[in-house]
Amino acid sequence: MKIYLIGVAGTAMGAFAGLLKAAGHEVEGSDSGVYPPMDAKLQEWGIPVKTPYQAANLSMDLDWVVVGNAISQSHPEVQALQSLGLAYASFPQTLSNLFLQDRQSIVATGTHGKTTISALLAHTLVHAGFDPSFLIGGIPKNFNESFRLGQGAHFVVEGDEYDTAYFDKGPKFLHYRPKYLLCSSLEHDHADIYANVDQIVERFAQVLSLVPEEGVVVLNTLYPELQRALEKATLKAKLIPYAEPQDCWENEEGLRFTVDGQAIRIPLSGRHNAQNALGCYRILQAVGLSHDQIRDGFEAFQGVKRRMEVVGQFGGVTVIDDFAHHPTAVQLTLEGARKRFKNQSIWALFEPRSASSCRRVFQDAYAQSFDSADRVLLAPPGRSLEPELSLDVAKLATQIGSKAEAFDSVDALIRAVREGVLPNTVLLCMSNGPFEGIHQRLLETIQSKF
User: Fold this and answer.
1) Measured between alpha carbons, how far is residue 430 from residues 99, 181, 333, 340, 434 in Å?
2) Residues 317 and 188 in one domain
3) pTM of the model
């Protein structure tokens, strides 16, 4: 088919375009602009991109149009596809229709950890010779791509609870036909579309109810809201609960714990990743992998880009990039860093950028997130909201205490790093966006200082 994607340069849509191309479709798309690293990826995959958005970009020879979830009903290309009478659907609907109907879908859901979990599942399946397909919201280092089209029976997909499209306000994960469902965590998130956690609980109850009788649900019992979702669901599938792994300890090389009396090692940090790995173990066990296959896959896992990724080191200073933006994710990431870098000073550089993290709803929660940091440097919010809705970073710095400081710009934050940083320091940068290229800029600053 000739398929056109409106909003093709986004992280998920771009990866999906690559998957469609790998499946043999003729693929093109449009966006308001195309920026690194997606510009190079789309070019590498041979996917032409039309900019800017305009009605003339669409033509009658298109078999299918995929509408991104950031696209509104009044969008000029939406108006054009409706005028032309073209067939269209959302990205999750199209993924389901073209790839998931004849495969066994393994869906990773949860407020935190979905990308790492999906990557670990996909990698371990490949390592064991299962040849799965996958579509993930990050880039697993074992593959260096966020999608894969395999010949095996399984498809690993990251199950997002965010809404699907302007014409479908249900969460994406309701489209993914889960045979195996991993529920790792549940807290209030996406405050721009969910007024409270109760609304998210209802959505998780729906996806739990979708798993067929021959399917398996693996669920983290440490989250009360997941327990509530389970109580509301009409569960047909087999339930496998999990919580903290046994005999868990951590050092600079990663985590070690036991499952059913047998040892597991994985080069990740933080108790949250120990839980995530145990959940993955139970899913993979249900799929049919042996302990040895899971153990070997876990030990060879390289992680995901932008998840505690060391960008560079110079003069005894380490610069790390991480995607953490929810208050709990920030807290757990810093706790993991504290255990990994025990004898170093940890500076948390945080940019609130997501639709939720920029909102005042998490003001007090963030005040408790930075306890494991020695110093906290806060950048201004990455998007503009009405003052009464926006996170107040100056107030947040006061709430955190004397170790915290809020800045009017990323430039000012970088200058403060240059003035104060010393050897034996970890600069942990947390944002779900590019953070104005702070990582390389910090390395350049450190090199000029030392």
Assistant:
1) 34, 28, 9, 17, 10
2) no
3) 0.86
